[in-house]
């Protein structure tokens, strides 16, 4: 998908601190595409472009965005800074971008002070995938069709495990 900033009529903003985060964040956009959820990709940094980040955070709700997914690595302040400037639900993904393998980003993202929540997912690809599924679950509260798609997704996952179980062989 071609990235575009501040699209109209999107439900989910997928934000990242650097283009180097894209291979991880693609796990989130793939899920959103599979569920047919309108989304946009935004590149902005808490440290390198603080004013751009503020502009994005302050205008997201007014544009109709319902959930913001944020991935950042290193001293990952992006999700918290965005959450401090909106009342939309913010889902954070710690990216493994440094020698600390994401532990730095995990702690920076999850350890928010009381009053400013960031729903923090796992480090890396699983976190990005779950961020999109969590956003879908939030949106499904008011969307029966999406809720049915989520139920079908969970059932298929269970069936796949059963299939894999049957295919297990012992040597
Ligand atoms: C963070 O620093 C970004 O989210 C990225 O994960 C990390 C490294 O960024 P680059 O130096 O690769 O642009 O702000």
What's the mean pLDDT score? 95
First CA to last CA: what distance?
A: 44 Å
What share of residues is helical? Answer: 40-55%
Counting DSSP H or I runs of 4 or more residues, the number of helices is 6
Strand order of the largest sheet: 2-1-3-4-5
Number of strands: 5
Number of domains: 2
CATH class of the largest domain: Alpha Beta
Low-confidence stretches: none
**Ligands and ions found:** 5-O-phosphono-beta-D-ribofuranose
State the order of secondary-structure elements, H for helix, E for strand.
Answer: EHEHEHEHEHH
What's the Cα radius of gyration?
A: 17 Å
CATH topology of the largest domain: Rossmann fold
Walkthrough of the structure:
The chain is α/β, with parallel strands linked by helices and 171 residues long. Helices cover 45% and strands 15% of the residues. It has helices at 22-34, 50-60, 78-83, 103-110, 125-140, 144-166, and strands at 12-16, 39-43, 67-73, 90-95, 119-120. It has a five-stranded parallel beta sheet with strand order 2-1-3-4-5. Helix 1 packs parallel to helix 5. The protein is globular and about 55 Å long. The structure holds 5-O-phosphono-beta-D-ribofuranose (RP5).
Short description:
With 171 residues, this protein is of the alpha/beta class. Helices cover 45% and strands 15% of the residues.
Features:
alpha/beta, Rossmann fold, five-stranded parallel sheet, 6 helices, 5 strands, about 15% strand, globular, binds 5-O-phosphono-beta-D-ribofuranose
Spell out the blueprint of helices and strands.
Blueprint (H helix, E strand, L loop, with lengths): L11 E5 L5 H13 L4 E5 L6 H11 L6 E7 L4 H6 L6 E6 L7 H8 L8 E2 L4 H16 L3 H23 L5
Parallel strand pairs: 1-2, 1-3, 3-4, 4-5
Bound molecules: 5-O-phosphono-beta-D-ribofuranose.
The site of 5-O-phosphono-beta-D-ribofuranose has 10 residues, from strand 3.
